[in-house]
Every structure is written in structure tokens, then in C-alpha cells.
Amino acid sequence: MDSLSSWIIAEATQMGFDACGIAQARALEEESAKMEQWLEAEHEGEMGYLTRNKEKRYDPRLLVEGTKSIVTVLYNYFPKQKLAENDNFKIAKYAYGADYHEVLKKKMRLFLERIETQTGKLEGVRVFVDSAPILDRAWAVRCGLGFIGKNTTLIHPRKGSFFFIGHLFLPIELDETGTPLSNRCGRCTKCIDACPTGALESPFHIDARKCISYLTIEYKGGLENQDPTKFQGWIYGCDICQDICPYNHFSLPNIEPEFQPSEKLLSMRKSDWKALQKNDFEELFKHSAMQRAGFEGLKRNINFISTES
């Protein structure tokens, strides 16, 4: 099993994943207790899906019966070219290109095929990319792929935090390959200090109801009670607490062709966003994570930000 685990890690690297680790499937007792405290405070806002299937979220063996090992990967989405800042609105970097769910799932299915050349056909395998009740960051930590920063993101100590997380739930026993990392933020509070809405209320604690990313994507109500100046031009998501993080000084551009922004997106300016019609939206974001907000949600955000004096 040790040789197979080592082979899996090496194969992941060869396939272009930025990090890979393996952990034994077990209940996440400490992590689930923290999650429960957060939910009890109702800091999830309208993200009701976080309160459903909690038992499965806390124990992967209940989510997929027969799971014995979890292989977790990181895949870089830090862009080679950022959107223009002058006369423009801002969208989160993860949404620059094609929808990461499909891009990463496709790559992970190929990864699984490679693994099965060593194990034979495996039954009961599942591939997950932000698509099931899983504590993604907790498993990445268990696999030794990083630590949870004060901004609540997963941070790889040498590569930063601009990564998607994917998992293979496997019905075979594998040796664990990593050691969970404790927090390495030290005395730094740059992310907390930079958050314009106060969503990062304290180290390692976020109130999603105040988060720009939540308000521009998950929240479906009106924004009349918010201050548009605090959104600092973000119309979909927010990267402030990641951009300010010293660990992201090490971020390198991704090499995934499907994550590169289109020429049309790169050419967008405020006037183009304000004039955006539904057919334009579909052309720009047909296969994008931006579909989560939808045309009406994006227009709501644009109109709201445009009221900034």
C-alpha cells in the first residue's frame, strides 16, 4: 500500500495537479464540532444546503458506503492575465474561465483511470469537486496539503490559496501520505484588516452574511441595506482576503487552457457591464461558474455597485 500511495502521488504530479495527498476515511469529529458552532450562530445565511445531510458531511463513509481512503488534489486557478482594473468592475479569479466543476472532474476521472491500471477496476468510487456534502478544506488539511488561514481559506505554505479542491473516494486501504499542518499565519492579520465589510470578525471566523462573495453570489435578496462603497467594485465574488495574503506572493499562473479568460471578457469595461444583455451574458458565461448568480443576479450586482457615489 505504501508503494501504491507513493505511485498515486507521483502520478498526480505528472498529470499536472499542484498537490496530492491521501488520508484514511474517518469521522471528522473536531472539524464537525466547529462547523456546528458556526451553523448555530446562523452565519451561513441563505446557504441552507450546509445544514442538510450533516452526518454525511462529517463522515465520508456515510456519504459513500465502503469508502476507505480519500485522495485529495489541488488544482491552481491563479490567472496568467488579470482583468483590467481601470474603468472596470471586478469578478473573482476562479470565474475567469470555464466552470471548474467540469474541468477538474474531467481531469480527475482520467486520474482515476490511471489508478485503476494499478488496482484493477474499482467499484463504488466517487469523484467530487465542490458537488457534495464534504468538508473540502478539512480533508485537504488531513491530507497534508495546507493549513486553514485566518481568512478561513486553505493555504498551501509554498503555493498560496488560489486552488480548487477535488476528491476521489476509494474503496481500498491506502497509507496516509501527509501530516496535517497547524496554522502558520503567526501574528499577521492583513486579511482581517483588509475585509471592507467586517465579514472576518476574528481569526478563523467568517460571518458569510457580511461577505461580499456571499452577497454577490449566494444571497438572492435585495442589496438596498448594504453600502456599495464597501464592495469596492466587486460584482461577482471577492478575492480581497486572498490577494492581501503574504502566502499568495508565491502564486504562479495556472497552466489550464480552459481557465484562461476570453478576449471578450478581457475587453469588458464598466459601460459594457452596465449595458450587458441576457444574450451577451450567455455568450460570455455559458460554461462558467458565473451561471451560479445568473443574469438577473449579476445585473442586480452591477446596478447596485453603480449606485456608488
Could you characterize the architecture of this molecule?
With 309 residues, the protein is α+β, with helices and mostly antiparallel strands. The chain has two domains: 2-85 and 92-170, no CATH class; 190-244 and 261-305, no CATH class. The protein is built from 13 helices and ten strands. The chain has helices spanning 2-14, 29-40, 54-58, 60-63, 100-119, 136-142, 190-194, 212-218, 240-243, 263-267, 270-274, 278-285, 294-305, and strands at residues 19-24, 69-76, 90-91, 126-128, 147-148, 154-155, 163-170, 200-202, 205-206, 234-236. The protein has a four-stranded antiparallel β-sheet with strand order 1-2-7-4, with helices on both faces. Strands 3-10 form a two-stranded parallel ribbon. The longest helix is centred in the middle third of the chain and has 20 residues, at 100-119. It starts with a helix and ends with a helix. The mean pLDDT is 96.
